[in-house]
Specification:
Helix content is 47%, strand content 11%. It is of the alpha/beta class. A six-stranded mixed β-sheet has the order 3-2-1-4-5-6, sandwiched between helices. Strand 4 and strand 5 form a beta hairpin. It folds into two domains: 74 residues, Orthogonal Bundle (434 Repressor (Amino-terminal Domain)), CATH 1.10.260; 196 residues, Endonuclease, Chain A (2-Layer Sandwich). It contains twelve helices and six strands.
C-alpha cells in the first residue's frame, strides 16, 4: 500500500477547472505507479476507459465515491487531500454567477486565468481585457453584443472589471502584455474614452505586476502576425502551460509541448521586436499627442 505523495496544494483562488486538472494528473500518477491500465481502472468504478482518460485530463467532474474507489484500487492509504481536491473541483468559482451571459468555454478560461502565475498575452486589435477601463470595455463589448439588453451589457462589463481585481492580490499573477501600435491609435468609444484608456495604460507602466510593450509599425511583419494569443503558466507542477486562442464563436486551448513551445518562441520574438518596457510610456505619450 502507498500513501499520498507530498505535493504542494494549489492557490486559494484556484477554481474547479484547475482543481480538476490537478486531481486528474494525480490520479494518473497513482494509476501508473500501481501498474494498472485505464481499462482496469474504469472497470473498478463501472466506467469506460475513455471516462478514465477524461478524468485524468481534468475534463469531467468527479464523484467522491469514484475517487475513493480509484484510490483504494491504487493502494493509496491517505486519501484526505485527494478527496478535498475532489470537493474543490466540484465547487463553482465566483465567475459562475455570470454563466447567464458567458459561454462555458470562457468561464473555464477565467478559472485558469485566476490561478495563473504568469500570463503572457499579445493583442493586435484591443487593449487586453485585464487592462481595460470600464468605458473602454463597454465600447469593446458593445461591438459583439450590442444587440443584447442593457442589463446583459452591464453584467459583461461588471465581470471584466471584477477580473482585474486579481492584479491587486498579494499573490497576483504577473502580466506581460505586448500590444500592436494599432491598439493605441484605434478609436474605441468616444475621444474621452480613448484618452482615458491611454492615460490608464500610462499609469500601468510603473506597475509591479504588469509589463507592457508595444510593437511599432516600423517593425513591419512580425512573429505573431497570425493573431492574438495568451500563454498561461501555473505554479502547480501538475498543470501544464496552456495557450489560449479566442475565436469568434469559441476558443482553442493548446497544451501539447510542441505547440506551447512554438507560441512561447513567438512571444519571445515579439518581446525583442517591441519597444522596451522603459520606452512604452514614450510611445503612449506620442499616441496621446495625436488624439
Amino acid at each position: 500500500m502507498t500513501s499520498s505523495p507530498s505535493v504542494t496544494g494549489g492557490p486559494a483562488n484556484a477554481g474547479p477547472t484547475v482543481s480538476r486538472m490537478q486531481l486528474g494528473a494525480r490520479l494518473r500518477g497513482h494509476r501508473i505507479a500501481a501498474d494498472l491500465t485505464r481499462e482496469a481502472a474504469g472497470y473498478s468504478i463501472r466506467a469506460s476507459e475513455s471516462k478514465i482518460s477524461r478524468m485524468e485530463l481534468g475534463r469531467v467532474g468527479f464523484k467522491e465515491r469514484d475517487v475513493t474507489d480509484l484510490l483504494t484500487l491504487y493502494g493509496v492509504e491517505d486519501q484526505d487531500e485527494m478527496l478535498a481536491l475532489a470537493r474543490e473541483a466540484n465547487r463553482p468559482g465566483w465567475w459562475q454567477a455570470y454563466s447567464d451571459v458567458l459561454p462555458t468555454w470562457f468561464l473555464n478560461y477565467l478559472d485558469l486565468e485566476q490561478a495563473a502565475e504568469l500570463i503572457r498575452t499579445y493583442e493586435i486589435q484591443f487593449v487586453p481585457g485585464l487592462l481595460q477601463t470600464e468605458d473602454y470595455a463597454r465600447a469593446v463589448i458593445s461591438i459583439g453584443h450590442g444587440r443584447g439588453s442593457k442589463r446583459e451589457l452591464d453584467r459583461r462589463v461588471e465581470l471584466r472589471m471584477a477580473r482585474q481585481t486579481m492584479l491587486a492580490r498579494a499573490d497576483s499573477p504577473r502580466l506581460w502584455a505586448v500590444i500592436d501600435e494599432a491598439v493605441l491609435l484605434r478609436p474605441m468609444g468616444s475621444r474621452a474614452t480613448h484618452r482615458a484608456q491611454l492615460e490608464s495604460l500610462l499609469t500601468l507602466t510603473d506597475s509591479r505586476v504588469v509589463r507592457l510593450q508595444v510593437v511599432p509599425f516600423s517593425a513591419g511583419g512580425h512573429a505573431a502576425a497570425g493573431g492574438a494569443f495568451s500563454i498561461l503558466r501555473f505554479a502547480l507542477e501538475e498543470v501544464p502551460d496552456l495557450v489560449f486562442l479566442e475565436q469568434l464563436t469559441g476558443s482553442l486551448y493548446l497544451d501539447r509541448q510542441e505547440d506551447v513551445d512554438q507560441y512561447a518562441a513567438a512571444a519571445s520574438r515579439l518581446i525583442i521586436e517591441a519597444t522596451t518596457p522603459e520606452r512604452t510610456a514614450d510611445v503612449i505619450h506620442r499616441a496621446l499627442r495625436n488624439l
